[in-house]
## 1
Amino acid sequence: MFALSALQVAVNATSVSENASLRASAMLYFEQAERSVHEDLQSATHKNVEAVYLTSVLLSFVTLALLAGSTDLPRSDLDLWLRTSIIVQSARSRLLELCGTEILQTHDLPYGNTSLIEERQAYDKDRGRPFAHLLTFAAEHENMTTEDEDVYTALLGCLSVLFHAVNGRVDTPVRVCQRLAALPSTLPARLSTLVAAKTPRALVMLAHAIALMQLIEHEVTWLRGIANRQVRQIYDNIPLAWKERMSWPMMIVEGNIRTLTTGLEHGEPVVVAMLCAPDIAEGEYCGASLTARAR
């Protein structure tokens, strides 16, 4: 937490030399902590493991907030968020081991929950529509392992559920924010490796999920600026052939898809929007809502 706080200070440092020094020190501090955290988790007891898990969730939120900044870290800030999510998974596993499932039901937090029952059902039902083209595009040119495909299908299932939740006015903006923030901690750790290796398929799929953050950032200020920076950065760093698959996320960050507003339903704010959805069959993009296009 101290290391990540130093990174936040570095973003606001007025002196270039002070900024560089803070970043270097903060990264060294964080990497030392990262190396020992998994070992330290094994020494957690039933008395403190709940606090350890909740602190790991807070760590994940702090690294998520860094995605909106202009930090020039030795390691990608996106990679930092994904690697911190692995810590969340380890903390949740230790919590389950020591305290069982009842304590997690008390918090009702999705962070680190890799069961993804709803997401797997959604993928099995419609094979990841309307984003299935992201799995099949140029697949013949990629040495995709079974482990890689498991990551991609899990991510597609999550993306499909989130998209339907937003488009179908199912969840509140805060709940959508929680699910987006928890996304990498619910997926196989292999995702972090694929993103660190700049695998285009992993980056483009992740960009689609991150783009949804912009649609609720006026209701959840924690997310403000993340999509605008990260989607554009991903677009700039993928091969030319993959850029056409970024049309939908780019439409969002460029303001060509209306930001969501909130209405009232059963006394609680809900997400209200008609999103411009990717075409299901060809993977191209159109102005129709998902409801009109789904089949």
## 2
Amino acid sequence: MLSQVWPSSVCVPITECPSGLKALRNRQQLPSRCGFKGNVEKVCCPDLRATSAKPVPAGQVTSTTENNSVKRRSPPKVGARSAEACRKYSKSAFPRIGLYVKNGIEAGPGEFPHMALLGFKYDKDLQNSGRTLTKGVNASWSCCGTLIHERFVLTAAHCVEREIPIVVRLGDVDWNSDEDGAQPKEFAVLRSESHPEFNRISLANDIALIELRTQVPFNWVMQPACLPAPKENQDALGQDLLVTGWGDTEFAPLSATSMLMKASLRAVDFRVCNATYAGTQAGGLRQEKQMCAADPKGLADACRGDSGGPLQLKVKDSQLMKVVGVTSAGQGCGSSPGLYTRVSGYVDWIEDIVWPSK
């Protein structure tokens, strides 16, 4: 039987601990030892603990302070939980196909297995409405997301601010066809949670999480993307980034596509990014929270309907992708850099919801 350490107990000489003396007289197990005072042994005396304290096994105590009070285990380092999840997912990841194709061309089945399509209550007036789901439920497709866990999808807060999606579709390529070689599946939505400091006018903190009612069974067309490390800077010169989504193919009416599209972009210098969107936020953009990306040739970009989808790159030595940005806003399609929520600035917030500390 392990001795017990009480987080709020006091380390005192055993002669000052009634229960310790009683255990000693009756040859019973003593409270946990915590040092000596002269030649007298000291114990963590439970008689002196707070009435609300609960015992924890001695092995969970990390250290003691200089005054011999018990120190609780430190909280996990920000980024450690998501990094461990990425390693776990990578070990069982399914092979993926072609990468880094430019100029907004169609994606293939299983190429971006983390891509999620958000379905809202049916609206016949929306251009991309009416796709029949399983069990005869209709939905209006609007916004994208990224699967990052068996139960969670990452998206933009402005996508779920006014209405919570009723369903998330995973594993699809063409939502308007059953002959695209994909194997899509719908998952009912339990809830959504936007960042508490989201501002719908400035689009600051434009990030949200959607929790599914059931777990996603990972396979070759449905598997998660990883998160970046906290404060990771994806503005490295010459680094290729990919944007994917089911949005418009040009900034014009009736240009929405039912096909999943992909395009290769480059991160834009933050000074250019800030100058482009300075009028949207008092004091300008926040570099640790937002970033811009664009096609140097001006041929490809995220567009309307791509909101909430990922700006991503391939994880080194893995089949998985890393979502570094969430599509937030733009000024035309390809005419100026697109604005993205920088995921590395929100790893702590995401982890506390998706991988809460035990």
